[in-house]
């Protein structure tokens, strides 16, 4: 029996339209870039006047020359105490996750009210006058489980009791005997090193400084604390603060802070034989750092309570930038969590970045997954490696990579479309607890910048732009930060989409232009020569701005006209972005 195939005109028409759409999409369609290419062609504005041996002053193109630098994100945020605003109108009963603890705004406000009262009750020698302050020294390991007391102390610290934040027990004697800031009147220490710290405090301060013990809920250090008490030292447990505050019938009102008051002092961990650097942080430094951090997000991408955002940070809380990330999250009404070793430790083992990311995404404990990540280059590399292992095993990986490459070349990436929905989404949800799943909407890599050849792989696997932020110990905010929608990727990276991440060429990606409230100059003998020869300008980085801190240690080289040497070298590209010169580890 013969089979007759009859095709009417309407079928021919639809087949023709379908074929035309396929050809148009394959050869002529270009997705719209997330940001106009002209905005990426000039990201810094340099002053027209420069001195011998240095470049002109670089500012972010969005800031421009001659305009005032931002010192706060809003007029209502003038001091650190304003970060957690008093509830207005209908009280919010929805708790948010703050360092793995569920707290409402009212509960957090009450804790911050009671904390100074309790400390003043337990330690009467603490000053109540800003003219003769007695600092509170904190020595807590950088772990998600031990960081909440440090954050609470930072938020509630009055002008008469600035904080001295130490990142390592090796700096304790230096801080107790320092002459560049007042001697501490209270040492807040973790129970894991209580024995050594109590002896050291007795040796350096005798009985003039008290000790507050954190992380000993079962009071296993009773013998050690009793021995210190018998020798005349005032010692208490962290849990005693709240009962002491509530039992006090009358309190001496603490003075209000001014934006120029000293809020805290930070110590760095010296490298090799370098001297210890100590910086002084004012309230304006803190608010300027918050403003700079929030400005790296477009208006519709900032952390917000409306989307239930939770910010997760791998930057230590005992650094100026790490604390600013936490405060910016709280001020935005978002949750905040730390990425790190789950147990208190001063020297986390290397190579555990993947486990830390999986831990932060674990929902069995009832904690929310993060939606915004501030991670290191090592965390970023571990994340890409795990995602790539699953991605290349899929039979459609090569086709998907070629398809996504076209969009990335055009400056566009999104989590929509069939390929992303049925391939990339499964890859992201199935690795490391789904930390890169659909809830994630922003990734910021903090450090010198990842390898340039890893950018394409990051855009492909995460379907998100990758923001690079370069920090410094001498600033509460970023020094450099790339455009949020900058998808410029080296050609070699796009050609090797499915090659190993570890095989990336050892060339750093740029870290963007100066932050919105930072001015940058490069100094060096070769700056003048490079300018004449037409090569990229290279030199030592000097910065200035409201988020830049004052160095007060004896080894400080001082500042000229407010310029701070951050001890790093960089080169500036023709579009105004900077590349750090430190080698890739």
CATH homologous superfamily of the largest domain - what is it? Answer: ANL, N-terminal domain
Number of H- or I-type helical stretches: 17
Calculate Rg over CA atoms: 27 Å
Helix content: 25-40%
Q: Taking all residues together, what is the mean pLDDT?
A: 87
CA-CA gap between termini: 74 Å
Please explain how this structure is put together:
There is one protein chain. This protein has 585 residues and is an alpha/beta fold. The chain has two domains: 103-278, Rossmann fold (3-Layer(aba) Sandwich), CATH 3.40.50; 296-343 and 351-580, 3-Layer(aba) Sandwich (Rossmann fold), CATH 3.40.50. The chain has 17 helices and 22 strands. Strands 9-8-7-5-6-10-11-20 form an eight-stranded mixed sheet, with helices on both faces. Strands 13-12-14-15-16-17 form a six-stranded mixed sheet, sandwiched between helices. The N and C termini lie far apart (74 Å). The mean pLDDT is 87.
Task: Write the SSE topology.
Elements: H1 9-28, H2 37-41, E1 44-46, E2 58-60, E3 96-98, E4 101-103, H3 105-122, E5 136-139, H4 148-156, E6 163-165, H5 172-176, E7 186-190, H6 194-205, E8 210-214, H7 222-230, E9 235-237, H8 240-247, E10 262-267, E11 278-282, H9 283-295, E12 310-313, H10 320-331, E13 335-338, H11 353-360, E14 372-376, H12 377-392, H13 397-409, H14 418-430, E15 442-446, H15 454-462, E16 466-470, E17 480-481, H16 491-495, E18 519-523, H17 526-533, E19 537-544, E20 550-551, E21 564-572, E22 578-580
Keywords: Membrane, Transmembrane, Transmembrane helix
Protein name: AMP-dependent synthetase/ligase domain-containing protein
Organism: Tremella mesenterica
């Amino acid at each position: 029996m013969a089979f007759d195939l009859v095709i009417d005109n309407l079928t021919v028409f639809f087949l023709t339209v379908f074929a035309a759409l396929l050809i148009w999409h394959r050869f002529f369609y270009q997705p719209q870039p997330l940001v106009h290419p002209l905005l990426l062609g000039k990201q810094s504005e340099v002053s027209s006047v420069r001195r011998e041996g240095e470049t002109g002053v670089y500012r972010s193109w969005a800031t421009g020359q001659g305009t005032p630098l931002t010192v706060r994100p809003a007029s209502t945020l003038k001091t650190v105490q304003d970060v957690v605003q008093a509830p207005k109108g209908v009280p919010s009963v929805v708790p948010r996750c703050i360092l793995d603890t569920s707290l409402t705004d009212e509960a957090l406000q009450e804790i911050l009210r009671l904390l100074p009262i309790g400390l003043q009750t337990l330690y009467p020698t603490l000053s109540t006058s800003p003219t003769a302050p007695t600092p509170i020294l904190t020595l807590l390991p950088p772990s998600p489980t031990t960081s909440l007391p440090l954050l609470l102390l930072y938020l509630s610290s009055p002008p008469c009791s600035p904080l001295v934040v130490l990142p390592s027990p090796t700096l304790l004697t230096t801080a107790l005997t320092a002459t560049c800031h007042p001697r501490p009147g209270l040492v807040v220490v973790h129970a894991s090193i209580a024995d050594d710290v109590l002896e050291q405090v007795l040796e350096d301060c005798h009985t003039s400084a008290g000790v507050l013990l954190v992380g000993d809920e079962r009071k296993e250090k009773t013998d050690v604390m009793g021995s210190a008490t018998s020798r005349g030292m005032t010692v208490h447990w962290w849990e005693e603060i709240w009962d002491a505050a509530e039992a006090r019938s009358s309190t001496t009102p603490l003075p209000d802070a001014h934006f120029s008051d000293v809020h805290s002092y930070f110590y760095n961990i010296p490298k090799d034989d370098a001297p210890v650097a100590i910086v002084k942080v004012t309230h304006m430094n803190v608010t300027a750092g918050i403003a700079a951090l929030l400005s790296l997000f477009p208006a519709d991408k900032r952390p917000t309570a409306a989307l239930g955002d939770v910010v997760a940070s791998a930057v230590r809380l005992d650094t100026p930038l790490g604390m600013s990330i936490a405060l910016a999250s709280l001020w935005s009404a978002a949750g905040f969590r730390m990425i790190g070793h789950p147990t208190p430790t001063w020297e986390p083992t290397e190579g555990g970045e993947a486990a830390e990311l999986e831990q932060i995404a674990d929902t069995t404990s009832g904690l929310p997954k993060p939606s915004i990540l501030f991670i290191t280059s090592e965390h970023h590399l571990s994340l890409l490696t795990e995602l790539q292992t699953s991605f290349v095993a899929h039979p459609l990986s090569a086709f998907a990579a070629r398809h996504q490459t076209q969009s990335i070349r055009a400056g566009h990436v999104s989590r929509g479309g069939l390929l992303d929905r049925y391939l990339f989404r499964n890859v992201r949800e199935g690795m490391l607890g789904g930390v890169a799943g659909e809830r994630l909407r922003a990734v910021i890599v903090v450090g010198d910048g990842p390898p340039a050849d890893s950018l394409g792989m990051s855009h492909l696997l995460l379907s998100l732009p990758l923001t690079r932020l370069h920090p410094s110990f001498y600033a509460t905010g970023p020094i450099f930060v790339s455009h949020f929608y900058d998808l410029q990727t080296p050609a070699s990276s796009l050609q090797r989409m499915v090659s190993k991440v570890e095989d990336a060429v050892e060339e750093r990606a740029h870290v963007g232009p100066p932050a919105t409230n930072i001015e940058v100059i490069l100094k060096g003998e070769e700056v003048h020569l490079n300018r004449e020869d037409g090569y990229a300008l290279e030199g030592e980085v000097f910065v200035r701005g409201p988020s830049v801190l004052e160095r007060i240690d004896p080894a400080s080289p001082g500042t000229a006209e407010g310029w701070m040497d951050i001890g790093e070298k960089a080169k500036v590209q023709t579009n105004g972005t900077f590349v750090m010169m430190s080698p890739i580890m």
